Amino acid sequence: MTATTSQSNIEFVHTISHQLYRGESRLQTAPVPSMERRKVMLTYRTDAKVGETIRFDKIASVHTSIDLDWQEQSSGSHSLMEFAREHLLAAANKGFDQVYNEHEQAWQQRWKQINIEISSIDPFDQLSIRFAQYHLTMMTPAHDSRFSIGAKGLTGEGYKGHVFWDTEIFILPYFLYTEPETARKLTEYRYHTLKGARKNALDRRYRGAMFPWESAVTGEEETPEWGPVDVVTGTPTYIWTGKIEQHITADVAYGAWHYYQATGD
Fold first, then answer.
1. In Å, how far are 15, 71, 79, 169, 257 from 175, measured between CA atoms?
2. 234 neighbors 264 (Cβ within 8 angstroms)
3. N- to C-terminal Cα separation, the chain
4. Same domain membership, residue 167 and residue 40
5. Secondary structure class of 193 (helix, strand, coil)
6. Mean pLDDT computed over 190-219
7. Residue 254: exposed, middle, or buried by beta-carbon count in 10 A (0-12, 13-18, 19+)?
8. Is 56 part of any domain?
9. Do 82 and 155 have their domain in common?
């Protein structure tokens, strides 16, 4: 499936491979396609005897036209769709077990790199730090400094993935002392958005740069002017944060200074 975003014209290609097995033998069962509102489905039907194992493997991928690997390897004669198909085919040919094994090995290596041990009589304390590290790892686009950490991480669509000052104050310190190369990318993100921060300042008749309460790829202020309707009064709520919060730029500067102090870079 292909799609293109309506404002920034980013192309998306979603690919899926299905494989159906009876025991170790792959079945050549043809699926029946169907469609409902916001759903596209393929239905497989097969018979299973008592004690027989039927396994259904599903491997999916998402590629976009702003992916670094696509931009580095692409040529005018090689479309994003072809690029995505090649990656899916390579993964599908490995099979689920091998893909899962590689995934497991990657996580084991990850935990070796970022291991934090807590001496406590309550094992929940160790579990808690691991849970936090897991989310920090999953929600951080450590591969690309053009992006930073969305306020909701990967747990919801709230704030539309916009970046807040929470990154510099609450999250950056963790990466400074566990993965300084990731901390560098989070700091570089603010440099990439400096042009938008200068526009924000100019729009408010300030000199210099004013980093936004809600930041996206351009660095311009993305905070909506009006919020949800008050359930009691029925009137919309005016959102002041994008207008009068002044500490954001200081937070960004603090993060950059903290990064330099920790790394000497």
1. 33, 27, 36, 11, 14
2. no
3. 43
4. no
5. coil
6. 95
7. middle
8. yes
9. no
> pTM for this one?
0.86
Does residue 12 sit in helix, strand or coil? strand
Sign of CA dihedral 196, 197, 201, 207: negative
Number of structural domains in the chain = 2
Task: Please give the C-alpha separations between residue 98 and each of 90, 170, 171, 180, 245, in angstroms, as whole numbers.
Answer: 11, 37, 33, 31, 50
Residue 12 has pLDDT above 80, yes or no: yes
% residues pLDDT > 70 (the chain)? 98
Angle at 244 between CA 240 and CA 249, to 5 degrees: 125
pLDDT value of residue 73: 75
- Among the candidates 63, 97, 131, a domain finishes at 97
What span, in angstroms and rounded, lies between the C-alpha atoms of 105 and 121? 30
- Residue 75 included in any domain: yes
Cα(80)–Cα(71) distance, rounded to whole angstroms?
Answer: 10
The four Cα atoms 84, 90, 94, 100 give a dihedral, to 10 degrees, of: -40
pLDDT tops 80 at residue 77: no
Distance of alpha carbon 222 from its chain centroid, rounded? 19
Q: How confident is the model at residue 142, as a pLDDT?
A: 94
The 3-state DSSP class for residue 2 equals: strand
Residue 111 lies in a domain: no
Q: Which domain holds residue 210?
A: 122-263
What residue type is assigned to position 72 of the chain? E
Query: Do 69 and 183 share a domain, yes or no?
Result: no
In 3-state terms, what secondary structure has residue 175? helix
Q: What is the 3-state secondary structure (H, E, C) of 18-52?
A: EEEEECCEEECCCCEEEEECCEEEEECCCCCCCCC
